Each structure stands twice: as C-alpha cells, then as structure tokens.
Amino acid sequence: MSTPTVTSAAPFFIVRDLPQALEFYRLKLGFDVMYQAPQGNPFFAIVVRGGAMLMLKCVDAPPLPNSQRDADARWDAYFSTPDPDALASELTGRGVAFSAALADTDDGLRGFEIEDADGYVLFFGRPR
Q1: What is the CATH number for 32?
Q2: Each residue of 89-128: pLDDT tens digit?
Q3: Does 7 map to a domain?
C-alpha cells in the first residue's frame, strides 16, 4: 500500500493592502497572480512561482509575522531553490532589497532573506 503524496504547501499571509502586496510579489519577486476574488474589489489572492504558492488576504486584523512574536523564529516562509545564487542575482536586477544577504547560514543552508511590506520574512535557499 503506497502512502499518499503531498506535493506543496501554501503559506497564508494576512496583508494590509492587497494591491501593494500583489505588486511586490509580481514585480519584485517574479510571482504570477493565479487567482483574485471577488472580482472588481479583491481581498484574496493566490500568487505562484514554479511550485511555490502563497495565499494573501486583506482582513480586519493586522499582519503578525513570526519575528514579531519571537525574534528567534524570524522566517514566515521557506522557499526551496536549487540555485539561490542565480535567484539572488535575478532579484538584485529587479531592485529587491535583501534583509539578509546571500550567505551560508549556521543552519547548514545557503540562501538569503527578503522582508515584504507587511514584515513577513521569506527565506530562499537550499541545504549546502
């Protein structure tokens, strides 16, 4: 008997301003907007890049990134990429500011961090 496969995960972020969040993820990080609802005045969206997906929703509650709860839990999402050096170069060309530069981490990873407008910290990398 085979075990059912889980193929991906999608963090769900509360955002202050959905159009601003979509602009950042689309123009700066190269994600595509896969879905928005409701039509005309969306408050929910899904963005994708490769196999990575994020859900974004503007609700009547403020964003609460992990780092605001505990400084030792600063990442809100980990994005696996086989070539973090190439991705860092692409994003630098898009004018993205890194909150932590491309480096080998103490956790045995190689990658970099980006903080979005709502304070969510995204790590892009791979095991060394």
Answers
A1: 3.10.180.10
A2: 999 999 999 999 999 999 999 999 999 999 999 999 999 9
A3: no
Does pTM top 0.90 for this prediction? yes
Q: Which residues pair with 13 in a beta bridge?
A: 56
Q: Tokens 């790590």 belong to which residue?
A: 123
**Alpha-carbon Rg for the chain in angstroms:** 15
Three-state SS letters, 46-81:
EEEECCEEEEEECCCCCCCCHHHHCCCCCCCEEEEC
Close Cβ partners of 67 (under 8 Å, ≥ 6 residues apart):
73, 74, 76, 119, 121
Domain annotation covers residue 34: yes
pLDDT of residue 37: 97
Whether 4 is in a domain gets the answer: no
Q: Are 117 and 77 in contact, with CB atoms under 8 Å apart?
A: no
Q: How many domains does the chain fold into?
A: 1
- Whether 92 is covered by a domain: the verdict is yes
